[in-house]
Amino acid sequence: MLDKTFPQYNWSRNGFTRNRWELLFPNQKRHTAKMKFKVRTLIVLLCVTAICVSWRGYMSFSLPQDERLCACERCLSEDDPWFMKHFNKSVEPFLSANYNLSEDTFNWWKLLRDAKGNFSNFRGKVERLFLMVPPSPDVLESSPDRCRTCAVVGNSGNLKRSHYGPLIDFHDVIIRVNAGQIKGYEADVGTRTTHRFMYPESCVDLDNTTHLVLAPFKTIDFDWLTGALTTGFNGGPHWAVRSKIKANKDLVMVLNPAFMRYVHDMWLEKKGYYPSTGFLALVVALHMCDEVSVFGYGADSDGNWSHYWEKLRKKNLKTGAHPGDTEYRMIQKLDEQQKLKFYTGF
């Protein structure tokens, strides 16, 4: 027991004084200082973390509407020089009753498949079609509180045994091309379709909820659609197409020839005669979606550009007038630049 009369220590009524504690426990002061430093450091770190989280929340939810493009984790942006070299948001993907196609673009488009008729004749056909189908396209607009996800499903043989079906069906918009089949291939290609891009020679019947997107390559294609959705179309024995098809007239959309030219010039750098329907559909998706996933494009593992539902009879099958290799490389580049997600099937 400590003696109150010990000469080095000051004794007080309330116990040891601070000096006496320091003398008896010389390490206590350093320990206390370290603890205080740790506490202060922890408080500073917590404050910095809170500020960062608050700032991220502010940037995510408080940006003005014209700066916040969508609610996706990653949106297609316009600040990438490479992407903006190709992407032109001002080009309308679809025709409308009020859209004025330039005669210069018409003359470019007319040469794709040696279309008959002059510019005035073309405009008359378009006007008649828009008396029957919606005068403006049904497109889901971008919004800061919405994330528009799109799956573009091509017809490549590399879809076989891919098991992409559930992933494809998970998207909001599911775009299919030409006569791409579903029945019997659901595990690999999914079950849903919201938009089907096709032209007369590749037409199929559609259910009442699917948008028919006409990819016109000649002026008679407008006549065909008008007739095929009403009383029937008679194109003569030289043109073997179906005279009638099943589709919802209220969901019809028509690809803009100016958009087709833009894809050929800007995205494919004028390679090939004209873009494939599949590549046109893919670039449309970049214009109308916030996140794009691509399936079923390119050759199969043996290098053949075959369809997944067909038994391949002709080896070394290529893409004809379409610049298939150029289109494929562009899809790969878009995937590398994280502008879309490319599922190769291999």
UniProtKB/TrEMBL annotation:
<dbReference type="GO" id="GO:0006629">
    <property type="term" value="P:lipid metabolic process"/>
</dbReference>
<keyword id="KW-0812">Transmembrane</keyword>
<dbReference type="GO" id="GO:0097503">
    <property type="term" value="P:sialylation"/>
</dbReference>
<keyword id="KW-1015">Disulfide bond</keyword>
<comment type="similarity">
    <text>Belongs to the glycosyltransferase 29 family.</text>
</comment>
<dbReference type="InterPro" id="IPR051757">
    <property type="entry name" value="Beta-gal_alpha2-3_sialyltrans"/>
</dbReference>
<keyword id="KW-0333">Golgi apparatus</keyword>
<protein>
    <recommendedName>
        <fullName>CMP-N-acetylneuraminate-beta-galactosamide-alpha-2,3-sialyltransferase 2</fullName>
        <ecNumber>2.4.3.2</ecNumber>
        <ecNumber>2.4.3.4</ecNumber>
    </recommendedName>
</protein>
<comment type="pathway">
    <text>Protein modification; protein glycosylation.</text>
</comment>
<dbReference type="GO" id="GO:0047288">
    <property type="term" value="F:beta-D-galactosyl-(1-&gt;3)-N-acetyl-beta-D-galactosaminide alpha-2,3- sialyltransferase"/>
</dbReference>
<dbReference type="InterPro" id="IPR001675">
    <property type="entry name" value="Glyco_trans_29"/>
</dbReference>
<keyword id="KW-0443">Lipid metabolism</keyword>
<dbReference type="Pfam" id="PF00777">
    <property type="entry name" value="Glyco_transf_29"/>
</dbReference>
<dbReference type="GO" id="GO:0032580">
    <property type="term" value="C:Golgi cisterna membrane"/>
</dbReference>
<dbReference type="InterPro" id="IPR038578">
    <property type="entry name" value="GT29-like_sf"/>
</dbReference>
<keyword id="KW-0964">Secreted</keyword>
<keyword id="KW-0808">Transferase</keyword>
<comment type="subunit">
    <text>Homodimer; disulfide-linked. Homodimer formation occurs in the endoplasmic reticulum.</text>
</comment>
<keyword id="KW-0328">Glycosyltransferase</keyword>
<feature type="transmembrane region" description="Helical">
    <location>
        <begin position="39"/>
        <end position="58"/>
    </location>
</feature>
<dbReference type="GO" id="GO:0000139">
    <property type="term" value="C:Golgi membrane"/>
</dbReference>
<keyword id="KW-0472">Membrane</keyword>
<comment type="pathway">
    <text>Glycolipid biosynthesis.</text>
</comment>
<dbReference type="GO" id="GO:0003836">
    <property type="term" value="F:beta-galactoside (CMP) alpha-2,3-sialyltransferase activity"/>
</dbReference>
<keyword id="KW-1133">Transmembrane helix</keyword>
<dbReference type="GO" id="GO:0005576">
    <property type="term" value="C:extracellular region"/>
</dbReference>
<keyword id="KW-0325">Glycoprotein</keyword>
<keyword id="KW-0735">Signal-anchor</keyword>
